[in-house]
Amino acid sequence: MRAAAIEHTNLTTFILNTAIEAAQSAIDRAERISLSETDTLKVLALLGNPPSPNEKLLAAAKALPKE
């Protein structure tokens, strides 16, 4: 009750807002990938200079349905 008063809100609103913030934080942790600086540089290098497709990738591309 004291925390709700400090925030100038009622207890129900305080609890609801706290639960929403916790839910958003949980979703962010589950959906966001954090890379180290080294890994980030590797990903950027691969995006800038991708390797040639191998046999499996070419076969998978050919197996895709035609539009």
From TrEMBL:
Keyword field contains DNA repair: no
Keywords: Toxin-antitoxin system
Domain of life: Bacteria
Gene3D superfamilies: Single helix bin
UniProt-listed InterPro entries: Ribbon_hlx_hlx, TacA_1-like
Cell wall biogenesis/degradation found in the keyword field: no
GO process annotations (BP): regulation of DNA-templated transcription
Family indicated by similarity: Belongs to the TacA antitoxin family.
Name listed for the protein in its UniProt record: DUF1778 domain-containing protein
Organism: Asticcacaulis benevestitus DSM 16100 = ATCC BAA-896
